[in-house]
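Q: Here's a chain of 154 amino acids. Please give me its 3D structure as tokens.
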Amino acid sequence: MAEMKRMDLAITVDDGSRRVPILNMDGEEIGAFTFRPTDIGIVDRFNRLADSFDRITEPLEAIPGDDAGEAGDAARREALAEAEKRLYAAVNELFGGDAAGAFFGRMHPFSPVNGAFYCEQVLGVVGKFISDQFDAETAKFKKRVAKYARGAKK
């Protein structure tokens, strides 16, 4: 009896995905994530993440003071873990993959940096990056549409 071999089929399409390195202030790569600058939904997802930041960080409001002893230490760990879980879910939803690990794999997102949470600084930079990339892609698209619109008028 003849043996049949299954051939895997694949279609490759350019979905606009780009690997984006994440650098620290010394220029060292601390992570990387996949970004699709042509994804028109990313702006809305970023705005939802920004609007939900207070809900994400809500567990941190219940952190007891330093004088709470061992029970306070456990409550702090639990609150940080819950806020981190919420943040990871929101960042991963934003980029459609494990981007949270890329941004926060080397440093806890709620670590203080220059008077703010590290994650706040990351989200500020990410928001500007998304806006800049989206604007650049939109300009390219408008140029292409204008080219066809001119051709249709002839």
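Q: Can you summarize the key feature?
A: The first strand starts at residue 18 and ends at 23.
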